[in-house]
Amino acid sequence: MSAALAIDRTLAALADPHRRQVVDLLARGPRPAGELARELGLPPPAMSRHLKALKASGLVDETHPEFDARVRIYALRPQPMIDLMRWLEEAERLWSEQLAAFKAHIEGQA
């Protein structure tokens, strides 16, 4: 998958406020799907859809504990956020350069 497509998927997944809340909760550590649903006040089918989208974007991984295959534990994957941060840093650098050049241009005309 190209870097641009990966960033597009990350941004699309994070566009939903419930998914951002899931990411915030998972930033504190892995959690079962049922616990995430309870903490966000979502019915299990809705939570399942959000987790499926986050998993498809690569933001989360799903594991099953050996003692109970019915339980799904979700954890954040750092790489999509690292890639997004790099992209944002590059965009910030480019905008800063453009704004500095514009400022120099305006001040040179004064």
Automatic annotation (TrEMBL):
Transmembrane segments: none annotated. Residues 1-93 form the HTH arsR-type domain. SUPFAM superfamilies: Winged helix' DNA-binding domain. It holds the Pfam family HTH_20. It comes from the Bacteria. This is ArsR/SmtB family transcription factor.
